[in-house]
Amino acid sequence: MHVDLGNAVETTPGLTDETLERLDDRVADAHDRIAAGMADEEFGYAALNLPAATDADAIREATDRFDRPEAVLTVGIGGSALGAATIANALESDVDAHFLDNVDPDAVAALLDDLPLADTVVNVVSKSGTTAETLANFLVVREAMTEAGVDWTERTLVTTGEEGNLRALADAHDLPALDVPDGVPGRFTALSTVGLVAPALQGHDIEAVLAGGRDGMADLSGSLFESPAYAYGAATYALAERGALTNAVMPYAESLETFAEWFAQLWAESLGKDGLGQTPARALGATDQHSQLQLYRAGPSDKLVSLIRPTERAETAIPETDLDGLAYLGGSSLGDLLDAEFEATEASLAAADVPNLRVEIDRVDERSLGELLYAMEAACVLYGELASVSTFTQPAVEWGKKAARGLLGGGDFAEADAVADKRELRVDGS
Ligand SMILES: O=P(O)(O)OC[C@H]1O[C@](O)(CO)[C@@H](O)[C@@H]1O
Which residue intervals define the domain SIS in the entry (predicted)? Predict the structure, then answer.
């Protein structure tokens, strides 16, 4: 993997060579802090040990109990789903991976109607074991399996914390149960049991994913000029400090679209603290050149664009054509066209003085995915150190959880009472 900062220097907002040199001194100090946290397995920093700490054999031992299924259904939300979904959705497999990470009744019903429940493994993931959406979906899935005459205890494994509802369920029904790593917030668990069970059930090489994470670990150093992860983290931080409060993450590969969704949770939930943060916008190249690019290039000078691509792609030839004005496409390939669009968009942003960062991985395979996930986690931790925010907590999400629980009679919460105080200003349609 490599990162190119060239298009963020002398832009608006922008960095200078002097900025980066001064920042490098702070990166060295931040790296020392991060390295100490990793060595002591401190809460949060322990995430950056996962490529070496995760026991792939334990994952295999739990998943090998199941014959190769037709489908894997992961029931989880946020970090308990997005890491696995990033890997599963990026790679080809003849085992379909599905993710229930929302409680939309139409979507849940449609999925359960489609799933071959007798040949589906249900992978329930929750660090806390109390997340309403995950537990509600599990109860609905279990009911559907029972009604279909499927013994759910034979088709279910769980990944959860040491205590809580899911641990109790696994104990009561002797379900295969894996541990969520201690001291790691959910959004940082992609390179652990949480992110690797579904890919393992699909037959992917989870050991290669972890090897890619270790490649990322090896690249951490005391200088942003030697570490792609720290280069990205330092540049995004410094650009935010100069007004780039939106980071539009735009992978030029359909296989990395879910990665942008995973990145959005990592960046928003880690760095959105104390009135600070950088809003992750999800985009996709080349598609969003025909939509959001107008805003990125000609809107307010308050954003940066992260352009991500694999340097190796599949090739699909574009047939020769005599269509007026389109003959230039013939004999080329879709990969060449996508790469030309990537480089054109990069230059288009630079010409408009919009800061953009290039992130390139070798190809979309297990090892490169592991390296990319790790690098962005390390970049996020570095940004949090430089911004002096509490990277590993997410207190702001608790208010809404309590309000929703109170509205459903799950307890007496002032937050639920506040819902009734909503100010009305209705404008009714015909
Ligand atoms: O794994 P759990 O405990 O169900 O939490 C799921 C997600 O919900 C959050 O706790 C936020 O509510 C995320 O940080 C986490 O990834």
Answer: 62-217
Indicate if ligand 1 lies below 6 Å from the C-beta of 187: yes
Give the pLDDT score at 398: 96
Are 114 and 141 in contact, with CB atoms under 8 Å apart?
no
- 279 and 236 in contact (C-beta within 8 Å)? no
Instruction: Determine what percent of the chain is predicted with pLDDT higher than 90.
Output: 99
- Burial level of 39, CB count in 10 A (0-12/13-18/19+)? exposed
pTM score: 0.98
Element (H, E) at 269: helix 257-271
- For residue 299 the two structure tokens come to 């809107």
Q: What pLDDT digit, counting tens, does each position of 306-360 carry?
A: 999 999 999 999 999 999 999 999 999 999 999 999 999 999 999 999 999 999 9
Per the CB < 8 A criterion, the answer to whether 58 and 178 are in contact is: yes
Q: Which residues contact 218 (CB under 8 A, 6 or more apart)?
A: none
CB neighbourhood size of 219 (10 A): 19
* 409: helix, strand or coil: coil
> Does residue 397 have its Cβ closer than 6 Å to ligand 1?
yes
- Pocket lining: 131 vs ligand 1, CB cutoff 6 Å: yes
Peptide bond into 286 cis (omega under 30): yes
Instruction: Write out the DSSP string of 74-132.
Output: EE--THHHHHHHHHHHHS--SSEEEEE-S--HHHHHHHHHHS-GGGEEEEEEESSS--H
Please tell me the residue having the least CA distance from ligand 1 atom 14: 186
User: What integer pLDDT is reported at residue 162 of this predicted model?
Assistant: 95
Question: What three-state secondary structure class fits 408?
Answer: coil
Which ligand 1 atom is at minimum distance from the Cα of 394? 14
- Looking from the CA of residue 398, the nearest atom of ligand 1 is 12
Nearest to 83 by CA among 411, 426, 373, 301: 373
Identify which of 401, 379, 75, 70 has the alpha carbon closest to the alpha carbon of residue 239: 379
